[in-house]
Amino acid sequence: MPDDSEQVTVSVAAEPERLHVPVVVVQFVKFGIVGISNTLLTFIVYTILLKVFGVWYLAASAIGFIVGATNGFLLNRRWTFAGHVGDALTPVRWAVVQSCGLGINLGLLYVFVHDAGIDKLLAQALATVVVTVTTFIANRAWTFKHAPVGAGG
What we know:
Elements: E1 7-12, E2 15-22, H1 23-52, H2 57-80, H3 90-115, H4 120-143
Antiparallel strand pairs: 1-2
Helix pairs in contact: 1-2, 1-4, 2-3, 3-4
């Protein structure tokens, strides 16, 4: 597992000096960018199922979440955590983390809509913030963790 103090050199065109940014910050920014595409897909699917097809809001959210999570796995594996050498269990770990994220998402969505009376689309947006931070931490620590150099897997 990389040391959190590990640095990445980022070139800044206006300044000839190098800016050193911790790897975790770079990964979180990339995770956020991927998350934007996930969120767009999730909200598009959620909104279409909810508003066009009249699907129950929790089912629409679950389906949208699965679409976004699949997109996220593919993009995060190739870009955000590109240094990770995957194994056969990487997709399983991702599925476990995303399933937990889905549970958190649905629980928060239900509480926000049913108990707090928040609009369904706003409630989904609020739940998304919590789930994004939670799943980033879990995916970085477990799903895409780096094995120490020379470790057998």
